[in-house]
Amino acid sequence: MTRDPNSSQDIRLGHADRGFVGKILRLDALQTGSSLSPHELEQRLVEMGFVEGARVEILHEGTIRRDPIAVRVDTITIALRRSEAMAVIVE
Questions:
Q1: From the CA atom positions of the chain, what is the Rg in Å?
Q2: Domain with 77 in it
Q3: Each residue of 15-71: pLDDT tens digit?
Q4: Which CATH number belongs to the domain containing residue 46 in this structure?
Q5: What's the pTM value of the predicted model, to 2 decimals?
Q6: Residue 2 domain flag
Q7: Does a structural domain hold residue 26?
Q8: How many domains are there within the chain?
Q9: In this protein, which residues make up the domain named Ferrous iron transporter FeoA-like (predicted)?
Q10: Can you tell me the distance from the alpha carbon of 34 to that of 13, in angstroms, rounded to the nearest whole number?
Q11: From residue 15, how far is each of 68, 86 by CA, in Å?
């Protein structure tokens, strides 16, 4: 999914394509498809650096169903399942 830099449309990081660059707005783990509870998923994401205002970039996608993805959050690179990335709302 490419994004118009002049648009303020919020999307879930799990829907973004390789090369996406954006900023984290908030976490919303209620409907992600993750096996973790929403509270546990949000806690893990925060511990990994997925916090409001952080810059995110999708660096790589897996070959099978584009999963997992490699995401740079500020200066850290993290591998994440797309179902978990669905909890991250970005612009």
A1: 12
A2: 11-90
A3: 999 999 999 999 999 877 777 889 999 999 999 999 999 999 999 999 988 899 999
A4: 2.30.30.90
A5: 0.85
A6: no
A7: yes
A8: 1
A9: 11-91
A10: 14
A11: 12, 7
